[in-house]
């Protein structure tokens, strides 16, 4: 299963987006290590992922993760993080 977003052409000109996309892809590689992060997140039983992830799920998740590395995504994260720190 590919864990790539819809706008991968942006990665060559946006290094932070590339970092986010690469890290997400690496977190979802199986390579004999069981299931990736998305499988655990979407599993009915998070201790036993059982193939609930579709190609579309993987594409949507990868698109959102890549977006978090974009300028707009970073502004979103910055708008949430300071508020969260004050609430702790």
Please describe what this structure looks like.
- Helix content is 57%, strand content 0%.
- The chain is an all-alpha fold.
- It has one domain (8-87).
- Helix 1 runs antiparallel to helix 3 (55-68).
- The model has no long low-confidence stretch (mean pLDDT 88).
Distance between the termini: 38 Å
Helix content bin = 55-70%
What is the residue-mean pLDDT, rounded to a whole number? 88
Structural class of the helix and strand makeup? mainly alpha
Order of helices and strands: HHHH
Integer-rounded radius of gyration: 15 Å
How would you sum up the global shape? flat
**Main pleated-sheet profile:** none
Low-confidence segments: none
Strand composition percent: under 5%
Q: Count of helical segments?
A: 4
Number of strands: 0
Q: How many separate domains make up the residues?
A: 1
Structural topology:
Elements: H1 15-27, H2 37-42, H3 55-68, H4 71-87
Helix pairs in contact: 1-3
Quick structural gist:
With 88 residues, the protein is an all-alpha fold. 57% of the residues lie in helices and 0% in strands.
Keywords:
4 helices; mainly alpha; about 90 residues
């Amino acid at each position: 299963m590919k864990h790539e977003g819809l706008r991968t052409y942006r990665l060559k000109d946006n290094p932070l987006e590339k970092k986010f996309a690469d890290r997400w892809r690496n977190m979802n590689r199986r390579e004999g290590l069981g299931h990736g992060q998305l499988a655990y997140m979407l599993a009915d039983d998070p201790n036993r992922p059982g193939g609930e992830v579709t190609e579309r799920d993987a594409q949507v998740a990868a698109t959102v993760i890549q977006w978090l590395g974009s300028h707009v995504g970073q502004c979103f994260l910055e708008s949430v993080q300071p508020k969260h720190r004050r609430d702790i």
